[in-house]
Amino acid sequence: TAYFGGGNFAYGDQRIAETMVYATDLFSGTQDQQIQSYVALKYGITLDQTTPMSYLASDGTTMMWNSDQNLTELTYINDIFGIGRDDNSDLLQVKSKSQQQNSYGIITLSTTSGTIPTDKAFMTIGDNGGSANFGSAQAPSGYQVLGKRWQVQEPAADVGNVTMYIDMADSQFNVANASNFHIMVDTDNDGTFFDESVSNGG
Asked: pTM of the entire structure?
């Protein structure tokens, strides 16, 4: 007899988002990775990266999030979330945010079209675990940058145009006018921003 959420003559009091039933408990390492990846991407849950582990699609080879991008520095392995489409697992995630980002300027990522045109297409984001405080270290002259920084990956097919929302209601974002915010991209991938151009605010 199988018991779910409790035990023999007991009950469970939990909120359960999804239940999966399998014909066997004999999973390979890849199969287990696929299952964990599906759940993690769908619900914005970060998989433990003590031992680097990529997020895999249902075919077992396509990357949702590639841990090798962080193999050297192990930097952007926190608060991993993303959007994507995987027809074999009936996954169409068009809007997402990490469920583990507390008060650090939560990012929400979504498609602008409301869909993803191509199967096995994913865009994922991880952060460096830094604080949401502004500082001048590694910033262009006259600017400050957040200690929390993000890496965006699109390791497979193109997800199309996306929109990124940043929750500026967080108390850390003590800037009166949104036009005073800018986005900086580390175009040369050297881990610093003092040599980068600053985008328009707004």
From this structure: 0.84
- What is the SS3 assignment for 109? strand
The alpha-carbon radius of gyration of the chain (Å, integer) is 19
Q: Estimate to the nearest angstrom the gap between the alpha carbon of 23 and the chain centroid.
A: 31
- Going 135 to 146 to 76 to 195, the CA torsion angle's sign is negative
| pLDDT, position 103 | 46
- SS3 label, residue 93: strand
Q: How many CB atoms lie within 10 A of CB 41?
A: 26
CA-based nearest residue to 159, from 108, 56, 86:
86
Pick from 63, 43, 44, 119: nearest CA to 86? 119
| Rounded Cα gap, residues 40 and 22, in angstroms | 18
| Secondary structure letter of residue 157 according to DSSP | B
Token code pair at residue 141 = 């002259």
